[in-house]
């Protein structure tokens, strides 16, 4: 085999590879990546390649980088470690990850509101167009719905699409990921008019602004909220403006489950149960009191509302009506978004284990599993930035029955997940490039409603012919 005689000389006998053939020995390439690359770039190659490439990401570019290195950037040469064939083999292995990302990243915008999917053709009917970030929706008994906007407004949308702003919303810190977040109705809303808002509560101290995730209970009377009362305030407050979590869902037990993110404390808070509410899923009664069977209720040193821990930034929480389990999804860093089924007292691992790496490409753990830590039932590489979640508990969508719908902020689509034995066995990308999908809900009328950002839109998903 001809060897390189200089940094720019590439053995052309290995270029190019046709789509119908491959030189990749996946087993050898994966082993070489794990043994020589994962220490700096992370265990999962697919997470590492989700990046901007300073020196190019073609086959020759990768060969040169591995062969000769870029010492000034911390990339060593592997010319004495691998043969040329092994370097091409490793380059081709990395290219499979790059090609996988491309399926998410085309820039083709929808040309109409009609979309053909695997099982049916649907149209998107715009039922709300206002604001920038419609974060959540809740459906009223009269056929209308409420929609929050992260900027701090709550609107009522009538059956006739008339929009009325609701007064009495709590003051919020609108910065970064903070603002007015989720809204859910009390299970007996038709009788008591109670609803719940999650939001970024703030305070001024020592000339600094601190914020945290709070849950407010209030009553909707006409077009105004009354009897406002915070029934949960996460501690500690932080000056950061991200990872609030804030998703809520009532369980079949009648209790309110909700998420609180790490607020940027990635290594301390998620595993800390002592006087720390961050990086957790919490469970409280509708009035804010603590259920007697909460897993840590008898430990005076633990925050009694904690139900699970070891979470990063959960922005999806939903009840599965088939078996009454609570499902959750959360953002990883670069790679490692997770889908989980929530179980009392379980540790979900952040940041001890993860399938992701740091945003700057460095690693923070070499573990993807550990005894005593609950593994995800699904993880995404590359990160899709999941937000919102709904089970299709309706017969309106033929072929989608019992599927799980998850919004993607990053790649701007709705992810249809086919489930079997509590595993995701198939996914379909719906409405590619429709916009950052912030929320997806199944309304009492059996239809799916999807909230999209920038500009703010809520779409009703209607099978063609309905």
From TrEMBL:
UniProt xrefs under PANTHER family: ALDOSE SUGAR DEHYDROGENASE YLII, HEDGEHOG-INTERACTING PROTEIN
Recorded superkingdom: Bacteria
Species per Swiss-Prot/TrEMBL record: Pedobacter segetis
InterPro entries linked: 6-blade_b-propeller_TolB-like, Cyt_c-like_dom, Cyt_c-like_dom_sf, Glc/Sorbosone_DH, Quinoprot_gluc/sorb_DH_b-prop
Keyword line: Heme, Iron, Metal-binding
Protein name: PQQ-dependent sugar dehydrogenase
Protein's UniProt keywords contain Ubl conjugation: no
Domain Cytochrome c: residue ranges: 24-98
PROSITE patterns named among the record's database cross-references: CYTC (PS51007)
